[in-house]
Design brief:
single chain; alpha+beta; seven-stranded mixed β-sheet; 36% strand
């Protein structure tokens, strides 16, 4: 019986009724879905302080958009994920199964940043909305937009917006 309790406590099964066994958070109880592959690309953000280049993964399909940056342990300083929805529309995101804080840059059809949500809370199921129609969302490390001087009105240059140089 003791060895069974040890197995349960090691995370093979989370049972709250077993004395002394920690209950895993709900996100940890979910099986990790199979990996989704993403195409990589560069984009440039034209800011008041000059251009910033990021290497991003592209979330273009529903499967890619559903997976996003979930289950990632880290994100490089100039890395991110660009979600393209094809046309401006009200957008809503959440951070369920996302382990790192993120800034979400909501972008219109011309590449202009229309809203920035900073430091989205990891594992939260609270909705984060665009507030206005947006075509795309760029997710970068939490706090990076403030640190790098990225503001609403700055322009994201990438092939999806037809404005890459």
């Amino acid at each position: 019986m003791r060895s069974l309790l040890r197995l349960v406590c090691r995370g093979l099964v989370a049972v709250s009724l077993v004395a002394g066994c920690p209950v895993l958070p709900s996100w940890a109880q979910q099986p990790v879905p199979p990996a989704v592959s993403f195409e990589k690309s560069s984009l440039v953000i034209d800011t008041g302080g000059g251009p910033l280049t990021f290497e991003v993964e592209l979330a273009l399909t529903p499967d890619q958009q559903q997976r996003g940056l979930m289950f990632r342990q880290k994100l490089g300083a100039k890395e991110g994920m660009l979600f393209d929805f094809g046309s401006p529309q009200p957008l809503s995101f959440w951070m369920a199964n996302t382990l790192i804080p993120l800034d979400m840059l909501f972008i219109d059809g011309d590449g202009k940043i229309v809203r920035i949500h900073t430091n989205a809370e990891p594992l939260s199921t609270r909705a984060i909305t665009s507030g206005v129609p947006a075509r795309a969302v760029l997710e970068i490390n939490g706090g990076a937009s403030r640190l790098l001087g990225i503001k609403p009105g700055d322009v994201v240059r990438h092939a999806v917006f037809g404005n890459a140089k």
